[in-house]
Amino acid sequence: MSTKKYDVTIIGGGHNGLVAATYLAKAGKTVVILEANSEVGGATQSVQAFPGFDAHLSRYSYLVSLLPDKIVEDLGLSFECVSREVSSYTPYEDKGLYVSRKWDEKTAASFNELDPTGHEGQAWQDFYAEVAEFAQRIAPTLLQPLKTRSELKSEIGLPDIWDYLIENPIGNEINKRFTSDLVKGVVLTDALIGTFASAFELQANICFLYHLMGNGTGEWKVPIGGMGALVKELTRVATEAGVEIKVNSKVDSVVSDESGVTVSMQSGESYTSDYLLSNAAPQVLAKLRGKPQPKSLDGSQMKINILLKRLPQLKSGIDPRLAFAGTFHANESFSQFEQTFIDANSGLMPTKMPIEMYCHTLSDPSILGADLQSAGYHTLTLFGLHTPASLFDADNDSAREVALASALSSINEYLAEPIEDVIAAIEVKTPLDIEEAISLPRGNIFHKDLSMPFREDDSEPSWGVETDDPRIFICGAGAIRGGGVSGIPGHNAAMAVLSNN
Prior knowledge:
The protein has 501 residues and is an alpha/beta fold. Helix content is 35%, strand content 19%. It is built from 18 helices and 18 strands. Strand 11 (260-265) and strand 12 form a beta hairpin.
């Protein structure tokens, strides 16, 4: 078969690959995307997960925070998100801590019920005001060449906040600021989603930072129509810009030399280009290049998608439409997190899994067909934390059942009725299942360990997307500043290529 020539070849049609391709095509480059699966989107696909039910869920990723408004504007995306009025709800005993997106009387009353002294509520407001100021200053740098550690610290100009967010384990600051084990856990949860770490490891700081710096606000928004709506828009602008997208195109090998980069396919076809961008994980790229694969943390989250016949009632008596509108936390106190981490690190599956859930359909019912909407159905997306891939290695199927029982038991502790009574359909994904489905090594949703959003002072100038080959760049979550549904590494990889021309 003949070899096809392009300016840029992109492996993987996830959202970052589509972002990179569109920027490059708009700059006049010829671009082809090679996607192994039958449709683009990767972890941002929306799928009909439950046979026989007209429900299209965002199967692996479900909210948008880190996607910069600038990328939306640059690419002309017609993409709508809505804000969640409720930030989170955390039940305890027969009560619950309610936190709105913006501090209000209901939130104040909920904090005062937990802590009549007023300390926790004030500490919460003070802490998140500081974090918000830091986020506003760091967000614009994410679409620029990497600052050095010293440059970024100087530019942000908040040395005390820098120290507790960047230099010292976030667990220390949480313990310093708060006294309630429950409140500490609500704060800590943003440091642990997808990251297998203790509160006293800097890896947790990085995860915390990524969860709270999006667009300078850290607000997590609901995509109308699910993540599939974002993928559809990205596909539209990419193809309109002239990008060729080839699905069912699995890459077999990558070879680079002075003349360019050649990508050979399992089908026997090949593509050559001046540059290669990889939306695949760095470990996958290394394997394709015949190089040693870098090690990284295990993915550590169960992903459970549920279709409910109706919302369950809670022991606390709160309207479930409020409790599940934001992020619902269960068994996620600070001490529970730490003990579960210790246990999982020793090979023990959590007996009461720390979980958090969110009901997309309370903000956007459009992902359900009209019949399901009128019947009162809802979706529930559940993440189980501190469930590393290693817990599933011996027998994935058996461990999946044990983990599911632990997760459902965790939520049932706070419900007035068993969750099983209102489940119409359920889909359970372990880290190993996620790896099998979308090639995330060990089920790590960030592809590898997240990195601080800067380079060290003695390092070479960089966009955070470079590899050891000047023709090959990372445009996916494995880049520096790559985690989350952001498009940031896609933008930065495109800029790195264009800066070479």
